[in-house]
């Protein structure tokens, strides 16, 4: 059902510092920050040869990242994102098996312009899982 | 300095159940469990098209995963592993920049038979980082 590891999401308290760490210290290309108000985040992607990291900083008071960063002030691994060929078919199969979809249950448009949705971490080994239409 | 995302490490309380989730529910090939007593873990790899997940279950009373699973009983994202061309050169450059290497500071042999070492999460955005000789 799932395909490529599209990215690993890492929540950070300071996106500029996080970008500098990956770009300058670890020597990897990093994209310019992009605000995504409908998700409550500002994101930069770290472009590794075979996958990406998504560095996420809270945007706005209602950002879903704020509670995570209160528990993890230095930042931390936040989610993994897998590509699927058909996000509706994948969702429906997982829901039939008992998995829970977060929020409305309907896909939203994500950072790459493709539909995404999030699955409950309790159903996936304590890991927040994002599915993204390939 | 860093290259491919070799794998994402996910700590789990029950490796057999975790393997079944990825193999049967999510439809991805999963390797047979392998015990690594020197690391205190039993591991299976989830073989995604472009990278891997390393599912980790504690092995032995002194396993470094036990404290993590006490805080996260359902499991959770544990580390990311990046490939480097020269693990000693990478370590020395990072240490000169102020980063801390865990344990003895010397590489050990990891799951794929290659030298690995771990970097302090406080120096890497709250994320435990494994470096692996490519």
Question: What does it look like?
Answer:
Two copies of one chain form a homodimer. In chain A, 21% of the residues lie in helices and 36% in strands. Chain A is built from three helices and eight strands, in the order E-H-E-E-E-H-E-H-E-E-E. The radius of gyration of chain A is 15 Å and the shape is globular. In chain A, strands 2-3-4-1-5-8-7-6 form an eight-stranded mixed beta sheet. The termini of chain A are close together. The longest helix of chain A is centred in the N-terminal third of the chain and has 11 residues, at 15-25. Chain A has 134 residues and is of the alpha+beta class. Chains A and B meet through strand 1, helix 1 and strand 5 of A and strand 1, helix 1 and strand 5 of B.
Topology:
Two copies of one chain form a homodimer.
Chain A: E1 2-11, H1 15-25, E2 34-36, E3 41-47, E4 52-58, H2 65-71, E5 76-84, H3 87-96, E6 108-109, E7 115-119, E8 129-133
Parallel strand pairs in A: 1-4, 5-8
Antiparallel strand pairs in A: 1-5, 2-3, 3-4, 6-7, 7-8
